[in-house]
Amino acid sequence: MEPARRRNAAGGGFGGITRKTTDEVLNRMKGASRGQAALGALLFSAVFLALTFAVVEWIFGGAVDVVFIAMEIVHFFGILVLMRKLLKEKSCEGLSLRTQENTAAYLVARVISGALFEGNHHTLLDFLTLAVTALVIYFMNTSLKSTVDHKRDMSRRDQLLYIIAPCLGMAVLVNPAVKMHLGFVAWVCNVLWAFSTYLEAISVVPQLKVMKQIADQVGFFERKSTADYVFALGITRFLACASWIIQPSTFGYVIAVTFQGKLWAFLTLIAEIVQTFILADFCYYYVKSVADGSGLVQFSSVV
């Protein structure tokens, strides 16, 4: 009998979790309907947004910039979690190279355009996140290349055809169009800024597909560093939503400029909603796995 089969026969399981424990947890998970999962995700989102609003209003006096800084810091630490995984486990198991490339692409675009439009601490935080992301990509393409799961990950062709090209096309057609008196350079920066916004919204899709395929195969995705990283991305999205809610006048502005034929603000809001919707489902199951102490994340990704 092969070693792996001996372990299973003896009651061992995936990632050191016993088969009995795994079956019990999966049975509990399957008992929850899709409607309950959606309700749980909405409840989690509502509680998180309420807490964020309270912190910003009562501790920081309504300074919304605090929310944006928190978003960038959470994302940065999420990438650091991945770095720790790569250095400790010497494996890219469960990690999508395409999502890391998407992340690097939109961060490069944002740093370049941000240097012209903002040039402040946000640009610096984006640059730091880009630097760590670049290290992750470097390790995945060099010393850990043999552990990259190309079979589950999105192909390069599909990445360019279904993610990069549509985002770039949309960016050329609909962008902020600010500081246009600077000429061609300003136009390029506007396109890059819009490209980063659109790409960020769907950059995590390849990662969720990898995790979903693993979950479909073994019944769950074990809550390790990769899941922690995706959860960190989810938190950044909830913080982004909080920033919109804390500024109710923003919605009025979006509606006003949309009726004026300026679609940029409207598409920015849509991009935020899409990314939040993509990650909300996973975040619910992640929190559920923490609450029941199983360490197993079973989710039905929308991608």
UniProtKB/TrEMBL annotation:
GO terms for molecular function: ER retention sequence binding. Keywords: Endoplasmic reticulum, ER-Golgi transport, Membrane, Protein transport, Receptor, Transmembrane, Transmembrane helix, Transport. It is found in: Endoplasmic reticulum membrane. The chain crosses the membrane at residues 37-60, 66-87, 160-178, 184-205, 226-246, 266-287. One of its GO terms (cellular component) is endoplasmic reticulum membrane. It comes from the Eukaryota. Its main location: endoplasmic reticulum. It is a multi-pass membrane protein. One of its GO terms (biological process) is vesicle-mediated transport. Belongs to the ERD2 family. This is ER lumen protein-retaining receptor. The lineage of its organism: Eukaryota, Viridiplantae, Chlorophyta, Chloropicophyceae, Chloropicales.
